[in-house]
Amino acid sequence: MLDLINRSRPLGGPAERAVVLPRTVTPITGEQLSSYLPRLARANHLTLAEVLAVLPPWFATKVNNPDELAQHHMLAPATTGALSALARLARTTPQRLAGALPAFGATHTRGPVRATTACHLCTARRGVGEPIPVHLPVHLKVCTRHGIWLSDTGQPNLDVTACPDIIAAQHRINRLLRQCTPQQLIYAHESALAAITPWPATQDAIPLHWRHRLPALQTLNHHRGLSTDHDAYTRAAKFPDAIALVPEILSARENEQDLMARSP
């Protein structure tokens, strides 16, 4: 198949040839390389092995590594060349690929990232109908454009449009990041989640997330066949309450650090 594709000058190794694929594929922001390369191959009626055969060995190593974000010192020197090779193959620019694919080490995001699945409505707008594994900032829990809860990898994304306060909580997180670091925000959020009991101790103390959000989420996503006690439901339902506690936790943490700094 590759014999039908235009070849030009060598890329640097005896088995490497500069191949230009006829069909381009735009990467999704944060997309894993192990997702983008197979999509690129399928769009051009090729196998992943055929695409890897005309790319530097850097790619095979990355794709076969469970943690493709790891920047191993043996691979780092070859990253720039690998990026240029893929840009030529995919008929795009190194800057566009580096900005979208975290495997190249330049995510252009503040703070740590987490593995999740891209909002299916966002990808559908770009003609992609399959689930796309991505790495997104840890604090980004909701696609505010479409009202989709972005669960961690292995858990389902949820439609949260019936709970606008969940979407509003994501906007509040974005504003809080003007006052603290992503790491501080993550700590405060997890502390707040731990402080909120998902099940009411008594019928007289039923929290808002249990009284309204949880049943609403279960009803809206019933077609997914998830168990009513699925962790994705609980985390999404607790989200606004947890974010409401974050400023208080951040303030307490700041005061604690001030006291420690002043102590002899």
Which characteristics define this entry?
264 residues, mainly alpha, two-stranded antiparallel sheet, globular, 2 domains, 45% helix, 3-stranded antiparallel beta sheet, single chain
Overall shape: globular
Helicity range: 40-55%
Class by SSE composition: mainly alpha
The string of secondary-structure elements, in order, is EEHHHHHEHEEEEHHHH
Radius of gyration: 22 Å
The biggest sheet amounts to: 3 strands, antiparallel
Strand content: 5-15%
Distance between the termini: 73 Å
Count of individual helical segments: 10
Write up this protein.
With 264 residues, the chain is mostly helical. It has two domains: 2-104, no CATH class; 141-262, no CATH class. 45% of the residues lie in helices and 9% in strands. The longest helix has 32 residues, at 231-262. Residues 3-16 have low confidence and may be disordered.
